[in-house]
Amino acid sequence: MKIIDVVCSKGRTGFYFDDQRAIKAGAAHDGFTYIGQPITDGFKAVRQAGEAVSVMIILEDGQIAYGDCAAVQYSGAGGRDPLFLAEDFIPVIEKMIKPRLVGRELASFKQLAEEIDHLSDENGKRIHTALRYGVTQAILDAVAKAKKQLMCEVIAGEYNTEVSAKEIAIFTQSGDDRYNNVDKMIIKHAEVLPHGLINNVKEKLGENGELLVEYVSWLRERVAKLKTTADYAPVLHIDVYGTIGLAFNNDVDRIVEYFRKLEKAAAPLTLRIEGPVDVEDREKQIEILAEITSRLHKENIKVEIVADEWCNTFEDIKDFADKGAGDMLQIKTPDLGGINNIIEAVLYCKQKGVGAYQGGTCNETNRSAEVCVHVAMATQPVQMLAKPGMGVDEGYMIVYNEMQRILAVRKARKH
User: Is 332 noted as a catalytic residue in this protein?
Assistant: First the structure.
């Protein structure tokens, strides 16, 4: 089966692009937006509508496969590729990618995906991560359609894995509405919750971490109050954006003692803390996370550490995994470029005995989320993110429903 055309359309994402540098420099909230001038190149406002590009691959039998190019909320920050705007990048697809795909046989996802993922522009720079992300999604769908298989089955066949016969745990994120949204999560029996967005010491963590201890205690009590089955015991996973390190001056002894308090506040529920410190240097980040993780294990403090900051690319993930810098690593799907890298990253974590969290961003689309479900079902990470958006219901619905479709179709085929 050959590709006969590649067609693009501009799309919206499930959230927004935010100029992180401007926000850190003091841009103030005004309702749902921000006051102030943008700083990062390409931004016309501190917060602006998220954009995506749908890439549609037309097969010779008339079938249409598609994937969505999307980038993270804080585009252009932390060494990432620049702001991803559809009008800037559709011409790149037309000029550089379409000629490479039209006429190609859809025999192997991995081969075509790796070719696109390593594509460089005329200056020798790899094409934007969002382009690699979306085009490889479309290639996976195209190969699946050509072979009359599910996308997860194509991955399992090419990477020698087994498609999961059970659900992968879904991690829901609350945004700043960290109380009302938790109720939604508990009602829907989300397996992992609430993310929490603890990104400010004074307002959310507490100068001595006391506000987070109170919040974790509230979470435990809220689960106990609202759960409708006796066996519902979600994992509490909270992203603290380095604020624990800020509050305790990156003192490992003090941080470990603080985790002892958090463990007690969460018990009997399992607690994961994402991004406890951010020392603003990749090697130092690996070193301190490895030390904290080791100390918690040694002292039998049952709080799991999740690496996020400075763990962005496939190479980063390998280094963090090799050095034990966390019990679990977030694989931020759009930051890895081609979805072939997401597959490899999950499998590498599993090989090294490190938990794989197949994450992503609120600023994706329904399509990128659906394709990521197939990646998760074929590679079996510990958990995957409900996305896009920050409203809980929509992202959870998209991810949950696609997972159930896969399970139902595969079950029906066996009968």
Answer: yes
